[in-house]
UniProtKB/TrEMBL annotation:
One of its GO terms (cellular component) is mannan polymerase complex. This is Unplaced genomic scaffold supercont1.1, whole genome shotgun sequence. It comes from Cryptococcus bacillisporus CA1280. One of its GO terms (molecular function) is alpha-1,6-mannosyltransferase activity. The lineage of its organism: Eukaryota, Fungi, Dikarya, Basidiomycota, Agaricomycotina. Residues 543-642 are annotated as: Disordered. InterPro entries: GlycoTrfase_DXD_sugar-bd_CS (IPR007577), Nucleotide-diphossugar_trans (IPR029044), Och1-like (IPR039367). Residues 633-642 have a biased composition (Acidic residues). GO terms for biological process: protein N-linked glycosylation. It comes from the Eukaryota. Residues 555-595 have a biased composition (Basic and acidic residues). Belongs to the glycosyltransferase 32 family.
């Protein structure tokens, strides 16, 4: 039956196909004349590159959709690029003389579009979700961390204020275009990947020393291990010239020049140098174990997978941010109407038209080479150092500051620069007030003022603000981690054993540090810390001695008490023994007395018997009186004796 039906309708199959084809063509023609609910200007301005391929030209009959030539890509470029992406040929095949309506019949149709700003707000919401559970008070008390505001928009605004306040000469408008490092900083803070690769890491090692002649001989190993790298030495004069050349006339230069100690200047300089130039900064008492390109490889990815995937989606999109009034801007109700850049209004040209928009080549937060490579200095939590503050650490899980590697324009260094400059102003103000009041002023140590304490705060702040990576997530880690554009080596990687001996290197060894610490002798804060540490040690020793003496006295008292108790017990025992002996003697005397009494009674009976016998004899035999008298006397003697 089925075969009969099939053969019957086979002849009509071509006709049915023609009808379906005609219907499809008719529907297509009607749909091509439909209008979008949004003006095409919105589509041109706010959607991805693929969208432009559906609107290659302008429609002169739609005034609301008119767009200037500067905003609309040429038909050749739009259609040609899409053909190239899809493998349909190259842009040279496009006929520029063909009207746009004929060149692309889908003009006016709204394709399925997810606004870039919607993805961005979704990423921001996810970052805030990852930040949940972060307790600033707990992390300060337990780890010593002082991160500040971890909101990404507030963090970005603060860095821009740092730039305006400290890195621009007073009374001058922001430069246009901005300095080379600022767009890079903003690009790394943006959730959108850049359209061009960010500046690469220069192959240079920078260090500071009072004189080149004072460099430790171990430092030569940097050139031996990495001969193709440039080594830059900065003495005190070179530092001054560099700061003046980069930030001359700014508040930053003024504060830096007036810093009271050279160690503070070298700390601030390394943040400036990495922000502007990049490369490797390392103290002069260091030496590499392996080439810098091998540091931390291979590593484990610890970026949120969702952020990674969304970043890759954004890397193929190009668009400015959707305004809050745009119908497509309601992707995330929790963040509707706000984007990172809309919250920033600091009057600075950021260059975002060339930094934010466009497809990514192979760079950005989740792609390309790391932009910052640091190492944990020590993990006091993992080591069980509950007294980490007393052993000279500023943070429980401290980030190494004597060596780091970076590409220019990283937000961590702008944050570190802003914090150290503000702290320097605070120290100067407090010192002035103390002198005015005739009081002694002891500033904070370099470790806390400009050193690893503040630098650790800046690294942790960037990780949690940009990627939702909490400080506690770095505890107990034994392998290198990649979080966004930051590569973090495990504890000890920048302070491995000496490469000049035969001792076996630890895992992930990158460099050696001599810990010469020549700056400590000139640091009032360190001196005060050491003085207090010495006083504390002396007090602890005195307390320990007093405790030992008290314990000894207590021991002696216990021994005396024990001896007294033993003497008492012995006396009691002796008394009991005497009592027992007396009792036994009494019992023995009683027994003997009883025996004597019994003897007397027996003798008395014998005497009575003798008397009776004597009387009988006396009566019967007079000649026996003499014997009786003798017997009686003997009986009396025995009685007396008893």
């Amino acid at each position: 039956m089925l075969s009969l039906l099939s053969s019957r309708y086979t002849r009509y199959l071509p006709l049915l196909l023609l009808v379906l084809l005609g219907s499809t063509f008719l529907l297509f023609e009607r749909s091509s004349s439909a209008s979008s609910t949004l003006p095409r200007s919105s589509i041109y301005d706010y959607t991805s590159p693929a969208t432009h391929c559906f609107w290659p030209g302008t429609d002169t009959n739609d005034e609301s959709a008119a767009v200037s030539d500067s905003k609309i890509p040429a038909t050749k470029d739009s259609v040609g690029k899409m053909k190239e992406w899809m493998g349909w040929g190259d842009s040279e095949e496009v006929d520029e003389d063909v009207p746009s309506a004929e060149a692309f019949a889908w003009e006016g149709q709204l394709p399925d579009v997810v606004p870039v700003s919607g993805i961005e707000r979704y990423m921001l919401a996810h970052i805030e979700e990852l930040q949940q559970g972060y307790d600033a008070k707990h992390d300060y008390e337990e780890y010593g961390l002082k991160l500040g505001n971890i909101s990404l928009s507030a963090y970005t605004a603060e860095l821009l204020e740092t730039y305006k306040e400290y890195l621009l000469p007073p009374g001058t408008p922001p430069p246009n275009p901005p300095p080379s490092f600022l767009p890079t900083v903003l690009s790394r803070l943006s959730l959108r990947p850049p359209i061009t690769p960010l500046p690469p890491r220069p192959d240079q090692v920078m260090t500071t020393e009072k004189s080149v002649d004072d460099l430790p001989w171990q430092f030569q190993r940097w050139k031996e291990i990495m001969p193709e790298w440039e080594i830059k030495y900065f003495d005190d004069k070179a530092l001054k010239n560099w700061v003046k050349g980069m930030f001359g006339g700014t508040k930053a230069e003024e504060i830096w020049t007036n810093l009271p100690r050279q160690v503070l200047k070298t700390d601030v300089f390394r943040y400036m140098a990495m922000l502007v130039e990049g490369g490797i900064y390392t103290d002069s008492d260091t030496a590499p174990i392996i080439h810098a390109d091998q540091w931390g490889h291979p590593y484990n990815h610890r970026t949120s997978p969702l952020l990674t995937h969304l970043s890759r989606i954004l890397s193929i999109a190009t668009s400015p941010h959707l305004p809050s009034s745009h119908p497509l801007s309601s992707f995330s109700p929790d963040h509707a109407g706000t984007t990172i850049d809309e919250e920033l209004d600091v009057g600075i040209s950021t260059g975002k038209s060339t930094i934010y928009d466009g497809p990514l080549v192979d760079d950005g937060a989740e792609l390309g080479q790391p932009s910052l490579v640091v190492s944990v200095e020590s993990d006091a939590i993992d080591f069980g150092w509950h007294n980490w503050r007393e052993v000279g650490l500023s943070r429980a899980v401290q980030i190494t500051q004597w060596t780091f590697m970076a590409r220019p324009g990283h937000p961590v260094f702008l944050d570190a620069l802003g914090r150290t400059l503000r702290k320097s102003e605070e120290m100067a103000r407090k010192e002035k007030e103390a002198k005015k009041n005739g009081k002694e002023f002891i500033p904070e140590t370099a470790l806390e003022w400009t050193g690893p304490g503040v630098f650790s705060d800046c690294v942790y702040r960037y990780l949690i603000s940009r990627y939702g990576f909490k400080p506690e997530d770095l505890i107990h880690k034994k392998d290198p981690l990649r979080v966004g554009d930051v590569l973090i080596l495990p504890a000890g990687s920048y302070s491995s054993v000496s490469p000049f001996g035969d001792e076996q290197q630890r895992n992930w060894a990158a460099s050696w540090h001599g810990f010469f610490g020549r700056w400590r002798g000139a640091d009032p804060g360190v001196q005060e810390f050491e003085r207090l540490k010495k006083l504390k040690k002396e007090a602890e020793e005195a307390e320990k001695k007093a405790k030992e003496e008290a314990e000894e006295a207590e021991r002696e008292a216990k021994e005396a008490e024990q001896k007294a108790k033993e003497a008492y017990d012995q006396a009691d025992k002796s008394a009991q023994e005497v009592e027992e002996k007396a009792k036994e003697a009494a019992e023995e005397a009683g027994r003997k007395a009883q025996e004597a009494s019994d003897t007397v009674e027996a003798l008395e009976e014998e005497v009575e018997k003798a008397k009776e016998m004597a009387e009988g004899i006396s009566d019967g035999q007079d000649n026996g009186s003499g014997d009786f008298t003798e017997i009686r006397e003997e009986a009396e003697d025995e009685k007396m004796s008893a």
